[in-house]
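Last lecture ended with a question: if I hand you only a sequence, what can you say about the shape of the protein? Today we answer it with a concrete record. The protein is Putative adenylate kinase. Below, first the input exactly as provided, then the predicted structure, then a couple of comments.
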Amino acid sequence: MRIAITGTPGVGKTTVSKLLAGRLGYEYTSVKDFAVEHGIGKRVGDEIEIDVDELAEIMDETIGKNVVIDGHLSHYVPVDFVIVLRADPKIVAQRLIERDYLKKKVGENVEAELIDEILVEALEENENVIEVDTTGKTPEEIVEEIVHLLEGGVKRRVGIVDWSDRFDDIVEYLRR
Ligand SMILES: Nc1ncnc2c1ncn2[C@@H]1O[C@H](COP(=O)(O)OP(=O)(O)OP(=O)(O)O)[C@@H](O)[C@H]1O
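The predicted structure:
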């Protein structure tokens, strides 16, 4: 199976993807690494701007059948399941601040998590979307929850988080 692990930067995609790939005996690949390796996208400042249609086409032709794809654009790749990781926006903020993200970037990503941005994108691309709230769970617990859901034949589970009641606690991060 091809499984995309997507979500707002800082929710724990890379951590979970590597663990899940090991747990399933699957190949691990990240959109970022794949794009650089295959010359997809162009550098804009310190970021790479990726054409998601080109990414999807080349990845679909190149990667194996049993792969975990890590990245906040991975839901654009044709896969069997899209796992959308969620985390309390305050946790996202704290992790991005720890990585010295600029205040503006922190605000953009906290807002994206608050308004379910990646979930909405994933639902536009794939029927099989499974949302997992990572808040307060270890990477191992998250991986076991994903394996349990997949083994249980769950194809779609969304609408499990609503961060609207967290607004007052995170508004400081949203101010530009
Ligand atoms: N379940 C977890 N519990 C505690 N810390 C976690 C958990 N998952 C990830 N982390 C920590 O949060 C930080 C971000 O994790 P990670 O790099 O996996 O996120 P990401 O979504 O891949 O971020 P990006 O999209 O920016 O690459 C890391 O310091 C990681 O160790």
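Comments.
1. Helices lie at 13-24, 31-37, 52-62, 89-98, 103-114, 117-125, 139-151, 167-174.
2. The pocket of adenosine-5'-triphosphate is lined by residues 7, 9-15, 72, 95, 134, 137-139, 142 (CB under 6 Å).
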